Amino acid sequence: IVFCYQLSPVTMAKPAIGYAKKYKKPLLLYCLDIWPESAKDHMNIPVVYEMIRRISKRLYQQCNHISVTSRPFINYFKEVIGYDERNMSYIPQHADEGMLAQDFNSERNGIADFLYAGNMGKGQTLDVIIRAAAELKDRDDFLIHMVGDGSKRAELEALSRELGISHKVIFYGNQKREDMPNYYRKADVLLITLRGNNAVGNTMPGKLQMYMATGKPIIGAINGAANEVIKESGCGACVKAGDYKGLAKLMADYMDHVNNYLDCGEKGKSYFKDHFTLKNCVDSLEDLMRKMVQSYEG
Predict the structure, then answer these.
(1) What is the C-alpha separation between 133 and 157, in angstroms, rounded?
(2) Segment 49-68, tens digit of pLDDT
(3) What is the Cα 243 distance to its own chain's centre?
């Protein structure tokens, strides 16, 4: 069998397709980045997008099976690429298991500490967090900690000043990987947001898996696979992408009913162990490969 681990661009699948044809072997493509959607932000000319879509469709159609890392991608391939969903499967990416063994318990300090950690770019729509904080600015029992950097950080800091909540939102900038446990220990709740205006927004960001490994409740404004996993696992609560008022209500609900969230962290860790370990990922891929080989040879 030929195995292709497809990131970007989709044309990286061409050597695998050529090799599979030459040796008459089945081709399994593990898709971590859907095309042409991933290139949409970089092309404003319809004719160029259509050209990329046709190239993507031609390449994907030559794969015997496509496995995706987010369930909503299956519907995308069916509608945009015209790929037969019977030849698709969902196998989530694995994540670093090292955090499962660490102690991230936080000390009670009389307030709710909400933490976002990661890239601060356009796709993360972090203004949703800032605007949610503004909805709660009359409360004195919470802080938001923003760890990381990116193209939107300056705008986010300016927005927090504009909304009069710069004293409620702390920006720490980039931090060393080895120092991140200290920030996770500071947090009572982890926040996650992602854009919701395209199919990429339906993906499950690796951040969610990392968050779950810390054993902390997760509150988000996010669509697609991440929304499904948060609800399915019981690791927290979420509203639709962009809904800053809904996010503010969830944050307030945590502050007012913290006991309702006491088991969210352990549920997240348990779900992680059942779905996101390297062993789960590799076992699923191996099982799929065996079935494909048997079917191909038969």
Answers:
(1) 13
(2) 889 889 999 999 999 999 99
(3) 17
Q: At 203, is the pLDDT very low, low, confident or very high (cuts 50, 70, 90)?
A: confident
Calculate the alpha carbon distances from 31 to 35, 92, 106 in Å: 9, 10, 37
Structure tokens at 275: 């779905």
pLDDT at 184: 93
Query: 30 has which bridge partners?
Result: 5, 67
